[in-house]
Design brief:
Largest interface: A-B, 70 and 87 residues
Number of strands of chain B: 0
Structural class of chain A: alpha+beta
Helix content of chain B: 55-70%
Largest sheet of chain B: none
Number of helices of chain A: 11
Strand order of the largest sheet of chain A: 3-4-5-6-7-8
Number of strands of chain A: 8
Strand content of chain B: under 5%
Largest sheet of chain A: 6 strands, mixed
Oligomer: heterodimer
Radius of gyration of chain B: 19 Å
Helix content of chain A: 40-55%
Mean pLDDT of chain A: 78
Distance between the termini of chain B: 38 Å
Shape of chain A: globular
Mean pLDDT of chain B: 81
Low-confidence stretches of chain A: 37-66, 84-91
Amino acid sequence: MNDLDLLKEVPGRVGPPDDATRERIRKVVQARTVSERGRRPRGVRRAGVLAAAAVLAAGVAVAAVTQHVWTNDQPVAIPIDHSPGPDSNFGGEIQDPNGQIATSAELASAVDDFAPSIRLPEGGSFDEWSAQFATHLQGNGVARSEVASDMVFVSGCQWVQRWLYAYAHGDQASAREAMRVLDGVGRWERAAGLGNSMITLVHRMGSGDRAGIQLFENESCAFTGSWGSTTVQQDAKARGDLTPAAGTAQAYLRDGADAAAFDPGTAQGVAPDVVWTWAHMQPAPARPGAIFIADPTERAITLVSVSESGTQFCAVVTDSTIVRGTTVNDLSIVPAGDGATAATPGPVTCTPGDW
Amino acid sequence: VSAADPSTPELGDISDAQLVADSNAEGSAFAHLFDRHVDSIYGYIVRRVGRSLAEELTAETFARAFAQRARFVPLNDSAAPWLYGIATNLIGTARRAERRQLAAYERAARAAPDAHDDFEQSNARIDAARAIPQLVRTLAQLEPGDRDALVLFAWQDLTYAEVGAALGIPAGTVASRINRARRRVRASLRMTGDDSRGVGR
């Protein structure tokens, strides 16, 4: 028997909790999360609502930051108090921000306060994120610490996008810079009690796990509105719009529903935050910020999200798979005739891509 | 986190990563993740800090996971390392309870060989039982980070990569922490004459 075998013999191994214990734990978790469930998780502001966001953006857009307090060694310079204890809230160690915000103006003020302390990549921006955040405020109080933690996460996402772009183009210097910044972001997040996710990402970048990083970008960053003005960020936004839409379509199919019946009206009922469109809506149905529902195949729903850069990202969704790619089909054709009987661009060929 | 609907089709085919992603759009999906992992997380916490804190820390683990779910980085589609990491961070705030628990294990193990004067027990098993009090004492003396890595590896059967994801450290650091901890454990066992024979993993 070796030392590891001996370790396993240390007393204290227990079976699963009994039903009563499990239910007590469940109730505590439920109570702790009930106020969250009506809102998106921190770091997540669902894609869509872009028309409203565009209007609100005018009110909350962040002015260009010319003075910053972050440094190369410390990409996040928002002070934190100490390591979190069991009684502290998520991110509750962040200094300053125990105050609450409830209006777009207060959000803009908080963003202005924090932005100089958070390093963004060139072309990066908090504008899209803050516009979406404003739509979810709806007069509800949100702690400034949540604004700060979200902004740090959004900055991390933009550095992740930067790394993906650099990695794909063999730009090792930029990839290394992104990793260095993300390591600093991760150290700050960990000290603030926000988990190890960015640190884990850096380790995976170091091992060249591009697919794993892309998965994180698709599944987590995609929801944040964490994009800026560069092509890579615009493409990330288009993919981000597609991710929750694909999830919605898959949930629809898992319920045994008919792929052919998935139209904007049905989709809107399932996911009202997403802007849905299809060829029967005129004019120019496929556009940035909207999810285009292509003609269905027998068991699959094909969705397209157009980037401002012109790239058309697509997802072919079945009840068990989501194949992501790009399409070059011309979706800008305005159908002849009218209504549901009009000709459409036809089925979309979605070429599986590297995202 | 309401009880998950057991009639959900093909739930077993849905990965943890997908459940977490789904929960970003629809929070109720998190209930499935809770059901999938609550037993192992509870068991881990009980073993480390005892039953008195286990319910509270288990609930806190899942509440924090829910709050942090947008930041989840999937590793092989499993959320287990992520949840163990949150739980381990919480255990780190309860070191006094952990020390009490280890002391209790030491007392229990000291009492055990005498209490089981059973001819059916193999000599090796008796030797092991006698070695455990010293092993537990050494475990208590390890640096917390080394102890975290070692017990996640030895008790929860996580791989180096999974321990790394849980603790937010590279796999290489995990290896060095575990090696350092095991050297100390083996040295302490030799000092008491209860040598650990062979190094399996």
